[in-house]
Design brief:
With 131 residues, the chain is α/β, with parallel strands linked by helices. The protein folds into 2 domains: 32 residues, no CATH class; 73 residues, no CATH class. The protein contains 4 helices and 3 strands, in the order ααβαββα. Strands 1-2-3 form a 3-stranded parallel β-sheet, with helices on one face. It is extended, with a radius of gyration of 19 Å.
């Protein structure tokens, strides 16, 4: 089914007849996006979330660099806003934001952010050339 959807997509859209139907409510299914209470979070997800939270807690008083690559406003509560909050709250934290489309910064953190207004792929290619 997925291969057929990929093969028949046009402008990143698939024909309506290829969208799976939910066997419970008989509505068209949607991509698993974090937009409501139905995001899939399995046991492995919670394990990784706990490891991440532990890392942040153990390192919040140390020099901490947060690297944000191309994060926009589709789900800003996952990376963008938490990174901004950490940079604001943690005294030795710095944010490196690489973003050519959404480089906006909150005024309060401007002195703790390295802003790279560049396409992420180009940025990574440039870093690779340095090594």
């Amino acid at each position: 089914m997925v291969k057929e959807m990929m093969k028949n997509n046009h402008d990143c859209k698939i024909p309506t007849e290829l969208v799976p139907i939910c066997p419970v409510c008989h509505e068209s299914m949607e991509i698993n996006l974090r937009k409501d209470a139905f995001f899939v979070e399995d046991e492995h997800w919670y394990t990784l979330q706990h490891a991440y939270q532990t890392f942040v807690e153990e390192n919040k008083k140390k020099r901490l660099v947060l690297i944000e690559l191309g994060v926009g406003f589709n789900t800003p509560g996952i990376i963008r806003f938490p990174f901004e909050r950490m940079v604001l709250e943690f005294p030795s934290a710095t944010l490196i934001r690489v973003n050519d489309r959404y480089p906006d910064l909150a005024f309060e953190i401007q002195n703790k952010v390295i802003l790279v207004e560049n396409d992420c792929r180009k940025f990574i290619d440039q870093l690779t050339e340095l090594s």
